[in-house]
Amino acid sequence: MIPPIKNKRVQAHKDEFTNLVDTNKDKMWYVCSHDNPDPDSLASALGMQTILQFLGVENVVITYCGEIGHPQNRAMVNVLDTFTISKWDDISETIPSDAMFVFVDCSTGQKNVSIKKTPAIVIDHHKIITTNTSILFILNEV
Q: I need a labelling partner for 131 at 20 to 30 A (CA). Which of 93, 118, 122, 125 fits?
């Protein structure tokens, strides 16, 4: 479905990612932002939701814990009228035990992440502290 990549290291990451998604595509997926999502966090979450849906995952929810309070952040959510983001407190009681979690623009162990779940995938550009994550992409050299 996704064409081969010439860089072997990147190809290995792509294969690992697509295999994990393919193996778990029938589960609920939650794309989690840090507590007070900003535009890069919101865009990363929307991008990950789109990728997961492209790979055949039907149930993907974007979620966060805090507030989307800054005017530029609210504007982004309002302008993207197809953008649905759920507050963690509103959905946390209905999450299946086998759900898959992706953390974008954040990781476990950070002060601005109140979602206490172990992510299968972490994609971040900050220095991160995480454990028990299947796939970890750290892009702090950008």
A: 93
Quick: pLDDT tens for 60-99.
999 999 888 888 877 877 777 667 889 999 999 999 999 9
Cα–Cα distance for residue pair 30/114, rounded to 1 Å: 14
CB-CB contact of 4 with 76 (8 Å): no
Domains, the chain, in order of start with CATH, read: 28-66+74-138 (3.90.1640.10)
Sheet of 60-64, strands arranged across: 86-87, 60-64, 29-32, 100-104, 121-124, 135-138
SS (H, E, C) the chain: CCCCCCCHHHHHHHHHHHHHHHHCCCCCEEEECCCCCCHHHHHHHHHHHHHHHHCCCCCEEEEECCCCCCHHHHHHHHHCCCCCCEEHHHHHHHCCCCCEEEEECCCCCCCCCCCCCCCCEEEECCCCCCCCCCEEEECCCC
d(CA 65, CA 35): 5
Q: Contact 44/77 with Cβ under 8 angstroms?
A: no
